[in-house]
Design a protein that fits this description.
With 170 residues, this protein is of the alpha/beta class. It has one domain: 3-Layer(aba) Sandwich (Rossmann fold). The chain has eight helices and five strands, in the order E-H-E-H-H-E-H-E-H-E-H-H-H. The protein has a five-stranded parallel beta sheet. Strand 4, helix 5 and strand 5 form a beta-alpha-beta unit. It is globular and about 40 Å long. The protein starts with a strand and ends with a helix.
């Protein structure tokens, strides 16, 4: 049995999150998702809209996810790989080269998957006026999506994709 692990905050669960979970699960038989706790997000300077318990419950409801664990700090990753017998850690391509994941290569395979173009929690918060403009940084996938369509068209397109995909989860 191949065991796969991914990490994230998974706030404002959206189509991009579902896609990385689907693609991660397709690479193995058992998917473990480590969700950043509220305390760890504070250390990283992030504030999630939903608290940890809510984000955990949302992820547990997604059919691709077999186990949700807390991510409490940067250093726990090696222990997680050993504790859960992980064969592969999968992250979005925006993490490629990050030492917090590269240091796991002696324990397991580390793979970076391309982000879903045009969607991110940062973009959603920005589009809804929930983001602090001083703390908001656009990702390459956000910029690609902005070049394709206006914000309202982009939201509508992503909502329809997500709604269709979401129905298939349950």
């Amino acid at each position: 049995m191949k065991r796969v692990l991914t990490y994230g905050t998974f706030d404002l669960l959206h189509f991009g999150h579902i896609e990385i979970l689907r693609r991660a699960k397709a690479r193995g038989d058992y998917l473990v998702v480590a969700v950043s706790t509220d305390e760890f997000n504070a250390i990283k300077g992030k504030k999630a809209y939903h608290d940890y318990e809510t984000r955990k419950k949302m992820l547990e409801a997604v059919r691709y996810v077999d186990l949700v664990i807390p991510e409490n700090d940067w250093k726990q990753k090696r222990d997680d790989v050993k504790r859960y017998n992980i064969d592969e850690v999968i992250m979005g391509s925006d993490w490629e080269g990050n030492e917090n994941f590269e240091c796991l290569r002696d324990l397991c395979e580390v793979t970076y998957l391309p982000r879903t173009a045009g969607i991110s929690t940062t973009k959603i918060k920005k589009d809804l006026g929930l983001a602090d403009p001083k703390k908001t940084k656009s990702t390459a996938s956000d910029k690609q999506g902005e070049a394709i369509a206006s914000p309202s068209a982009s939201r509508g397109r992503h909502f329809l994709r997500f709604a269709t995909f979401f129905k298939s989860l349950f």
